[in-house]
Amino acid sequence: MKIGVFVKQVPDTESRIKIVGDHIDESEMKWVMNPYDEFALEAAIKLKEQLGAGEVVIMTAGSARAVESMRQALAMGADRGIRIDTQGVTLDPFTTAKALSAVCKQENFNLIFAGKQAIDDDAAQVHVGVAEFLNWPHVSPIESFDLSDDKASVRVQRPVSGGMKEIMTVSLPAVFGCDKGLNEPRYASLPGIMKAKSKPIAEHKAADLLAGEGARISITNYQMPPEGRAGKMIQGTPQEAAKELVRLLREEAKVI
User: Fold this and answer.
1) Whole-prediction pTM
2) Structural domain total, the chain
3) Euclidean distance between CA atoms 232 and 142, whole angstroms
């Protein structure tokens, strides 16, 4: 079974965001693999291990910097990688999905896993778009995954409103968005890290795959959220503090 996995390099949530003019200054940012993509990768590797055969192929659309996250995925157990070089091209979810789907058609995957969303833009649109371009079924986010004995379908579970769960059977090939709770992503072992250095990463040019198709969404501005008001510590005994709090709410905040 040939399994595709979408991975994306995103800023570490601990990184400090700096806006310079009309763009984000990335010079001091730390980059990591999108956490939700780790669940997708683990699902693919576990499925390959369950079957005792197969191939796990990771795919990303990004600059040369993204190779670092791809090597991490290869160290965790993926077999090879494909990077869509975005140099000179501005992508949005639509064009990213179109470029990825073009390569997916060449690869002839049996199924594709992706994180339910990327933590940088929270768009959650790329894997949906790929499924649309491929005309495949799509389910997201999934919390469980069971392959049928004939390998023609899978049984998945996803959360719905009110704490309920939805269970469905999906014919393959299909695309699945993976959520936290589906599994526990493994750490890369030292042998895995060493092997990852020699695993192949093929490259395609986004411009060639898109054949002139441009992004349909453009970012016009970045803004930091306004700074919150400083808090005020109320001193004194509990009785004094309670009395002062009521006064502040009535006279300053004017909410009572």
Assistant:
1) 0.84
2) 2
3) 44
